[in-house]
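Annual report, structural modelling task.

Input specification for the fe (ii) ion complex:
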Amino acid sequence: MVATATSTLLTSSFLPCQGLRVSTRSLQWRKNETNCTRKAGSRIITAKLELRPPPYSMNALEPHMSRKTLEYHWGKHHRGYVENLNKQIMGTELDGMTLEDIIIVSYNKGDLLPAFNNAAQIWNHDFFWESMKPGGGGNPSGDLLELIDRDFGSFEGFVKEFKSAASTQFGSGWAWLAYKANRLDVGNAVNPRPSDEDKKLVVVKSHNAVNPLVWDYSPLLTIDVWEHAYYLDFQNKRADYISIFMEKLVSWEAVSSRFEMAKARAAEREREEERRREEEEEQSANGEPVEMYLDSSDTDASEAE
Ligand SMILES: [Fe+2]
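The model returned the following structure:
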């Protein structure tokens, strides 16, 4: 049987900033319309993405988020994203990548590849379920609260900004608290807060499936403001849903733990950059050519013009 393949060339220029573990050489997106063409020895290994359940039972967030909403939101919508993505990536070079890498590669500078929406929605929903807990709400504490006070003036200032982002996101989307680490330029996306200093907390909103991973921010908290997230419990009263989320559902333990990981990740990157700078200086001092990011042998004639 002969496979028909459609392909889109992904250039390497947007790959490195998010620390992808894929090759920086040109990456070919190739979707085989049949899976029957590859010999067993060269068959792409399929790593099927799984539907992860929320870390609590379907009725655990009642009365603030009903069992009916969870069963519908997780059981139908979230499940649909997983099933659709598995079909979309089967036999492509996205198959076998981590979910995060699929998101970053398929974001493609905002010119989305077909897998992006399903991949990002899976990640966003996993993150959303883990942003809540039974008996949640209240206030953050420790280092997180200190940075919230520094960057938003007070916890109340943060809540006001977060609620405003969630309620003013036009149509479907998400609001986020994220840690903006040590990079201003992201090869894969336009930074929505380029003039802000780094190493600070920011509130951002995103449309449809977009999330802060594509800007190289570290997400800490999110709320789903697609209508399917609240319509069964609150009808069209999005503001009421947002207030209940903040007052009764947020897991500040999860947010604090993500914050610690974000800081550790940022510190590790700084150390890596410092090591790279030192190596380059050493090479330069020894008269050795400094290794450039793009291997010239990867540049084809059209790119060289
Ligand atoms: Fe959703």
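The pocket of fe (ii) ion is lined by residues 73, 77, 125, 224, 226, 228-229 (CB under 6 Å).
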